[in-house]
């Protein structure tokens, strides 16, 4: 087992770090303050292949794996976790179309998505169903070669700005087997958006309800068969969870780096903060946690690439472990800045606000434990 990056992986990470240093980090605080979704910057990331990291290359995808994705998203998130996380969601949607779409659907949707000239959103959550996603109620009724879709999706990242919506709908009975996945373009009559939600963090990307009111969607836009939708949605989330974890890691690493630099400069009781052993231990704990998170994230990513039997469990473990620990690291980094950590200009409180939601979305961390526990009990019985 070799935990060093290959030359190609190191080059990919360097490319993403360079992009982040030049095009994301200098502007992240302004985007957060102005609640600006930096679509041009996101498109520039797409031009470098970061919009379709694990989409196959016959259709213009970058054709890499989940470890490379973790490297890229971590690097992007060191500049702005909110932007990195949106890019992660877009990647998840593009992969779902690549993996579950037929050739005609791949050719129809992917060329615009791989370059990020067209952006995508993932629509599973509804006002009445979040954790219990299989209880979704958005109904798609077949009329000839169209579905007529009515319902509401809640908390949709990128909604209003995205061009393509990957929407989980009910075409059959209650429960997970009655769900299908439709690709719905933004200009579909009957599709509209709620107001941009006011929220704690992730200010650099919009969150809106997606409202479907008699929207007519061609049957040809369905991914897979009727009833495959829940499986498709969950498959997307395995990789999505790794990426959200990577986004936490990038944010936390950046907060740690800021704290380390600050502690060398800031003096108290006649010495720099780095001279206090209690604070040295805090740094040691944080550094160890970051490294543990990174190592385990790569392990889970490799398992997903290898289609290992326990990949879903490992992805859930990685999501919970990394997002929880990295939130703690970012919050400790804020503490080590004293009162200055609470001021927006130091960039630490933004990271803490951005990382908080990673413990909630793409399955809450309690739901990650549900998944892990189920696999344990299943294995034991
Ligand atoms: C900023 C933001 C962006 C988002 N982006 C998207 C998006 O792009 N697409 C999308 O589809 N969704 C998105 N979501 C929705 C997100 O995935 C849900 O909020 C999340 O899955 C939780 O659902 P809920 O809010 O309905 O909480 P609930 O399901 O109501 O949960 C409430 C609490 O109960 C706990 N709980 C529920 N069931 C159990 C159980 N069985 N065991 C133990 N604890 C349990 C939960 O962990 C949580 O603490 C986003 C959310 C936010 C805040």
What are the defining features of this structure?
381 residues; alpha+beta; Butyryl-Coa Dehydrogenase, subunit A, domain 1; Butyryl-CoA Dehydrogenase, subunit A, domain 2; Butyryl-CoA Dehydrogenase, subunit A, domain 3; 3 domains; 4-stranded mixed beta sheet; 4-stranded antiparallel beta sheet; 11 helices; 51% helix; binds flavin-adenine dinucleotide; Mito_Isobutyryl-CoADH
Account of the 3D structure:
By secondary structure, the protein is an alpha+beta fold. The chain folds into 3 domains: 7-119, Orthogonal Bundle (Butyryl-Coa Dehydrogenase, subunit A, domain 1); 121-228, Butyryl-CoA Dehydrogenase, subunit A, domain 2, CATH 2.40.110; 230-380, Butyryl-CoA Dehydrogenase, subunit A, domain 3 (Up-down Bundle), CATH 1.20.140.10. The protein is built from 11 helices and 10 strands. It has helices at 7-24, 28-34, 39-47, 66-77, 81-100, 103-115, 229-265, 277-305, 311-336, 348-356, 365-380, and strands at 120-123, 139-143, 146-157, 164-170, 179-185, 191-193, 207-218, 222-223, 267-268, 271-272. The strands form 3 sheets. Strands 1-4-5-8 form a 4-stranded mixed β-sheet. It has a 4-stranded antiparallel β-sheet with strand order 2-3-7-6, with no helix packed on it. It is globular, with a radius of gyration of 21 Å. The chain starts with 6 loop residues before the first helix and ends with a helix. The mean pLDDT is 97. Residues 89, 121-125, 130-131, 155-157, 199, 202, 207, 357, 360-364, 366-367, 370 line the site of flavin-adenine dinucleotide (FAD). Pathway: Amino-acid degradation; L-valine degradation. InterPro entries: Acyl-CoA_DH_CS, Acyl-CoA_Oxase/DH_mid-dom, Acyl-CoA_Oxase/DH_mid-dom_sf, AcylCo_DH-like_C, AcylCo_DH/oxidase_C, AcylCoA_DH/ox_N, AcylCoA_DH/ox_N_sf, AcylCoA_DH/oxidase_NM_dom_sf. It holds the Pfam family Acyl-CoA_dh_M.
């Amino acid at each position: 087992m070799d935990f060093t990056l290959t030359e190609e992986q190191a080059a990919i990470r360097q490319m993403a770090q360079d992009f982040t240093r030049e095009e994301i980090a200098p502007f992240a605080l302004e985007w957060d303050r102005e609640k600006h979704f930096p679509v041009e910057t996101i498109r520039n990331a797409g031009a470098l292949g970061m919009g379709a990291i694990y989409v196959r290359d016959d259709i213009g995808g970058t054709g890499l794996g989940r470890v490379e994705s973790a490297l890229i998203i971590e690097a992007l998130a060191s500049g702005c976790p909110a932007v990195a996380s949106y890019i992660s969601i877009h990647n998840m949607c593009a992969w779902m179309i690549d993996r579950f779409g037929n050739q005609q659907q791949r050719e129809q949707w992917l060329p615009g998505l791989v370059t990020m000239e067209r952006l995508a959103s993932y629509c599973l959550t509804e006002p009445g169903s979040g954790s219990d996603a299989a209880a979704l109620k958005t109904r798609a009724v077949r009329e000839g070669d169209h579905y007529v879709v009515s319902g509401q999706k809640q908390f949709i990242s990128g909604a209003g700005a995205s061009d393509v919506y990957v929407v989980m709908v009910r075409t059959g009975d209650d429960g997970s087997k009655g769900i299908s996945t439709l690709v719905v373009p933004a200009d579909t009559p009957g599709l509209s958006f709620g107001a941009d939600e006011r929220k704690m963090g992730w200010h650099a990307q919009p969150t809106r309800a997606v409202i479907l009111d008699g929207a007519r969607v061609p049957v040809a836009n369905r991914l897979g068969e009727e009833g495959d939708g829940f499986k498709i949605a969950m498959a997307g989330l395995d990789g999505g969870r790794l990426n959200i974890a990577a986004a936490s890691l990038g944010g936390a690493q950046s907060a740690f780096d800021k704290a380390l630099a600050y502690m060398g400069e800031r003096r108290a009781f006649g010495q720099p903060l780095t001279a206090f052993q209690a604070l040295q231990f805090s740094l040691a704990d944080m550094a160890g946690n970051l490294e543990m998170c990174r190592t385990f994230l790569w392990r889970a990513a490799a398992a997903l690439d290898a289609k290992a039997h326990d990949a879903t469990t490992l992805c859930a473990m990685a999501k919970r472990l990394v997002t929880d620990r990295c939130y703690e690291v970012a919050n400790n980094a804020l503490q080590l800045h004293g009162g200055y950590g609470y001021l927006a200009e130091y960039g630490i409180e933004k990271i803490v606000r951005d990382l908080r939601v990673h413990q909630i979305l793409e399955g809450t961390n309690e739901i990650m434990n549900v998944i892990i526990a189920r696999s344990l009990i299943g294995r034991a019985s």
